[in-house]
Amino acid sequence: MRNLSKFLSATAALAIAASTAAAQAKELKYAHFQAADLASPKQAAALAFETCVEGKTSGGIDVQVYPASQLGDGSQVIEGLQLGTIQMGVVHDGPISAVYKPFAVLAMPYVFDDQAMAWAIMDGAFGKEMFEDMRKETGIRVLGVADNGVRNFTNSKRPVAEPDDMKGLKIRVQTAPVWTRLVESLGASATPVPWPELPGALQQGVVDGQENGVTNIVDASLYQHQKYVSLDGHVFSWHAYMIADAFYEGLTDAEKTAVNQCVEIAKVIHRGMTAAQDANAATILAAKGMEVVPVSPEQKAKFRELSQPAVREFIVGEIGEDWPNKLDAAVAAYRDQ
After folding, report:
1. Which residues form the domain of 59?
2. What is d(CA 174, CA 238) in angstroms, rounded to the nearest whole number?
3. Which positions carry the signal peptide feature in this UniProt record (predicted)?
4. Does residue 268 lie in a domain region?
5. How would residue 8 be classed by pLDDT, with cut points 50, 70 and 90?
6. At a CB cut-off of 8 Å and minimum separation 6, what does 72 contact?
7. pLDDT for residue 239 is more than 90
């Protein structure tokens, strides 16, 4: 009887300890916009991050993943990070550029040769300097970036192989002015539409087309309302792994280390899945019923000649020459290796 009493007391103590630990766990709400499906790079990476952080902190951080824009669009997630109602978000470049203007330099078209160059520059001194500047200006810490896909144009009207084919098309763009300038420089009209509203805008004919990487085209079933895809690869687009700096600074050193290490794991998963889809874009999108329009190097040069000076002029007008020059220098240094 005495042994039973000891057992029950020990069990009760363990239950109380577990309950207390759960109550003291730091809640980390993690928001992103892709579907709650392991085929979605952002979701696969998010679940890996959740498992990794909770394991490394022995449950000291309780990660709660909210996919499919459950906590709002990109702009709302950024606002939540600044208000402290969301602790972590993985948001694409458009909404970030609207809050932290220097991020718009990454919308410079036809800058990066391939993923290897893009990753090296964003993981290197250029990216680190930008992220620290963003933290000071916004109170949001960027822990790393992963691919939002190499962006290509799609539309429901006609094949687009060169800039003249863009004339008269209504193209959806992200909600930052730099993307409007990019599309307008090629002769099309630009309509900013938040991501959650894009499928409806295509279905209803509010816009004729849009520009995104294959991951997002497939993830949101945009191919259902788009007949043509032009593989021009105009911009290497990004998702930033962002955390509210006040929340991050409230973590212990061990918890910070866990978060940093687990973001690295999530980032590799995210990059690998997205890059693989980009590499197989023609096959993937043709299988979805889209007509794939190849863009030759000569035709891509025409897109570059029209868009790059116009977008650069806009970016310099918004943020000055400092960040565009730093990006140019980083690209030159990479090529000189």
Report:
1. 25-329
2. 12
3. 1-25
4. yes
5. very low
6. 31, 79, 80
7. yes
